[in-house]
Amino acid sequence: MATSRLTSTDETAAVAQAAAPARKGGAGPPGEPRRIGYLYVLPALLVYGAFLLFPLVHSFWISLYDWNGQTLATWVGFANYVDIVRDAELRSAFGHALVLIFFYAVVPIVLALALTAAMSRARVRGLTFFRTALFLPQVVAMVVVATAWSAIYAPSGVLNTVLQAIGLGALARPWLGDFTWALPSVGLIGTWVEIGLALVLFMAGVQRIPRELYEAARLDGAGPVREFFAITLPSLRGEISVALTLTIVAALRTFDLVYIATHGGPGTATTVPAFQVYHRAFETNQVGSACAIGVTLAVVILLVTVLVNRLAEGRDQR
Known about the structure:
By secondary structure, this protein is mainly alpha-helical. It is built from 14 helices and two strands; from the N terminus they run ααββαααααααααααα.
């Protein structure tokens, strides 16, 4: 018996000793080493660096010069960036971008949340059709959108014709040629374009909310408004964060809509940073200033995106 036990113990120790090097060699996380993982993403990093990072760094380098794009450039340091603060035209361009954020982001998200609350509570026939119709502006080229809305806003366009037909002819005006109404008119086009994106995101988010939550709220006597603020809105924080990020970025980088509809006019009433980049680089030959505006705009978009994501993450952790 004793001999048998010793033999069994020796065999167990031998097996453990043989397995020990295998465990030691296999220690660490499963899968390939980290350096192998970098090789997989290297092609994407090369493309990203060649087509995004390098042009951005090169634009920053050009922004340090006073250059017309043809003759020898003159070093001016950060003077082009100082001009962004001092130049009233450039300050107004960034101010107009802030106004467009209200029309591109705030208004569409509020309207989309209201539509989502109504559609999620009641059965709506043809819901797929409504989603498609509202999302359609996202897939239409912005040049087409700008051309169509320019015709609607024209002095003899659809909008003024309808106003005159219903007895409100006093409100008719050349909307895109009016110094007061040109920027809000452009902003409303952005609202029309972005509301479909926000609505589709919110409707997708509502579908993953457990129906039991709504049933429990109704048993407690909650009405539609309380259901929305207690269940729907908190459950859509992730979707709201994504919608805010996409719509704010769309507002800040607006160019084609302004270029086609107003060309920055009347005067500079609708000029925006992206339009100023084009205007200074290709129309007034201020390439250094255009690059400074572009780099500043990229930094602003990055900061806004990070801020929105941080706020969303902070609320989720709470």
